[in-house]
Design brief:
The strands form 5 sheets. Strands 1, 2, 7, 8, 9 and 12 form a 6-stranded antiparallel sheet that branches. A 5-stranded mixed sheet has the order 17-18-14-13-20. It has a 4-stranded antiparallel sheet with strand order 3-6-11-10. It has 2 domains: about 170 residues; about 110 residues, Sandwich (Immunoglobulin-like). The radius of gyration is 25 Å and the shape is elongated. A hairpin with a 4-residue loop joins β7 and β8. Helix content is about 15%, strand content about 35%.
Length: about 300
């Protein structure tokens, strides 16, 4: 990091213009929204798939588009650079125009639209992957990398289908300064394996009545498509910590899970008090991942409130 010096003491230093590399990004294939706290280094990139899987299951990395939701249209609405012409004809450069980019996919329907809209004005940073497996990141002054800083992040309303020319499309927009990307951007190659990855799927817990003072029974299924996870994963859902029950003070209650594959439900056994309300949720996605239930999150959207009769 450079020193702070008097403005009038600064000499203008231009860059050398020798050309050595023609590397540039091809058409975008995927965006990965990263929490602003996420930084990584060359060691992380040496084995990128488990590194990214860890970030996804920690809920600090969210793949957008990619092979599971291919980008079909890219609209680059670059703002013109701002130059002012003074009365004597002199032009003065004020700033570079902002890049405004809109990406569209025909995949995902309303469920995907809902997820994309959750990023509106979120302040997340962006990794960009292109069709050839190159990845654009930000090079930080401490030697680490991160997503590049966006000025704006937004999911416009979906485009509705018509009879002639237009299918349904989900849309996502990012805006950023060219100064941010040109001055701080770094392009990596070899990220092809990340293009097949996708974000976590929300899971909901459905109460199977009636709850009792000794057991709470739930169905476990994906929120959007209703895929039954008991059928898919069976006794893996009975491992310790896969479900967490808390009382009205937030304290965790000791429980034991068993799986009833015939009736496709999970029984959560413990000591519950009549008249009290308990919160039931899935364990952390990282724990589910460690137990072989990969790509799901029942810890947030799937939270269930249960009142014991």
């Amino acid at each position: 990091m450079g020193a702070i010096v008097k403005a009038c003491s600064v000499n203008v230093t231009v860059g050398n213009t020798g050309k050595e590399c023609d590397t540039a990004m091809a058409a975008t294939a995927m965006l990965i929204a990263l929490h602003s706290t996420v930084k990584f280094d060359d060691q992380d990139l040496a084995d990128p798939v488990p590194w990214m899987q860890g970030l996804i299951h920690d809920r600090v990395a969210f793949p957008i588009f990619g092979q599971e939701a291919p980008i079909r249209t890219i609209t680059n609405n670059a703002e013109s650079d701002v130059l002012v012409t003074l009365d004597d004809g002199l032009q003065v450069f004020l700033r570079y125009g902002v890049y405004n980019r809109i990406f569209e996919t025909t995949s995902g329907g309303f469920c995907y639209a809902k997820s994309l809209q959750s990023f509106n004005k979120s302040g997340y940073r962006i990794l960009e992957l292109d069709q050839t497996g190159q990845m654009l990141a930000r090079k930080n002054s401490d030697g680490t990398y991160s997503g590049f800083i966006t000025d704006f992040m937004y999911a416009p309303s979906p485009i509705w289908a018509d009879f002639k020319n237009t299918p349904y499309k989900n849309r996502f927009q990012i805006s950023y300064s060219p100064v941010e990307v040109v001055n701080n951007g770094i392009i990596f190659q070899g990220a092809e394996e990340l293009l097949s990855m996708m974000g976590l799927i929300d899971v909901e817990l459905i109460l199977v009545p009636p709850p009792t003072t000794t057991v709470i029974k739930v169905n476990v299924r994906t929120e959007c498509a209703g895929t039954d996870l008991v059928t898919l994963y069976g006794t893996k859902l009975a491992e310790p910590g896969m479900f967490v029950v808390r009382d009205d003070t937030g304290a965790a209650i000791a429980t034991v899970q068993t799986v009833d594959s015939t009736n496709r439900l999970v029984s959560i056994s413990g000591t519950f008090v009549s008249g009290k309300t308990y919160t039931v949720a899935g364990g952390a996605p990282t724990l589910w991942y460690d137990e072989g239930v990969e790509g799901y999150d029942a810890s947030t959207a799937g939270m269930l409130n249960v009142t014991i009769p």
